[in-house]
Amino acid sequence: MTYMTSLLAGTTLALSLALPVAATEYRVAVGDGAGGTQEALGKAFAAALAEESGGAMTAKLFLNGQLGDEQDTVTAAATGTLDFSILAINNITPFSPSVGTLTLPYVILSQEDADKVTQGEIGQQMIDQTIEDAGVRIIGWGYSGFRVLTNSKKPVATVADLSGLVVRVPKNEIMIETYKSWGINPTPMAWGETFAALQQKVVDGQDNPYMTINAMKFDEVQKYVTNLRYIFSIEPLIVSEALFEGLSEEEQAQVLAAGQAATQASAAFLRAEEAKIREDLVARGMEITDPADGEQEFITRATTTVWPKFYDQIGGKEVLDQVLASLDRPTAQ
Length: 333
Known about the structure:
Elements lengths: L2 H16 L5 E7 L6 H16 L4 E6 L7 H9 L5 E3 L24 H8 L2 H14 L1 E11 L1 E4 L15 E3 L3 H9 L5 E2 L5 H6 L5 E4 L1 H6 L8 E3 L5 E9 H5 L3 H35 L3 E3 L6 H14 L1 H4 L2 H10 L7
Parallel strand pairs: 1-2, 1-3, 6-7, 6-8, 9-11
Antiparallel strand pairs: 3-10, 4-10, 5-8, 5-9
Helix pairs in contact: 2-10, 6-11
């Protein structure tokens, strides 16, 4: 090697060491619009990831399903064509059925129940199962509150009041069967089609948490709200397992820490914002009705009819019993 060649090589090496390493920017698919739980979870994750990695890893959110329908993003992440996605838990269930335990009606009865299940031993089992079944890893949990029913026609307080309503539900068997137990045939529909269908009166109603109703501006096309508590909406943050396995141990730890920080931020966000959002929706013209008789008719029909139909699908009655036991509740009958 000549002196000049050696000098150039040394200079190049010095310059390369002096230059900062370019940050890796990951794409995060978000099904909902701005202002809801999913965006809050995503923002908290992006901030925590940048902090944990010292800026070496960053995340950019793509709201309103820009990167595909929620179920499509699971497939994209599994095949390694998408990095991260935030989506309703019912949209993971078709790929990893045991997760569907948390979408059975009236299993989760409070935010405290949701925290305890997802962040404890049950949650870890579901993470492991989802990796095996779907090729994606749950690294964080968003909490949106109960899926209340909205519609554009009339107040609903009883099961009988549902008669005549056309209600949109996700393409999720458990949710479909729940409405059937209440005496109506719901209309399965992709999330991206829902606002237009409500606007055009193709369907009369839908159910989602107050956070989502606000974020998606459903008050513009819906008037009546029924405070159902049949499903507590949980929004997992998933990462492509192929991407995760390709990271160093240090980077994996940073991603997991960011997911945990985002989980805690989401729980705090729901507690701080839900009541205010509900008041805002009322101020914008929505009318809220509580179910009659403490919702007992809804509960009885759903738990006695729907739960047994899905024991095999979720991995056996014992899977549900384990979740109920973790919440200090009696086993299913």
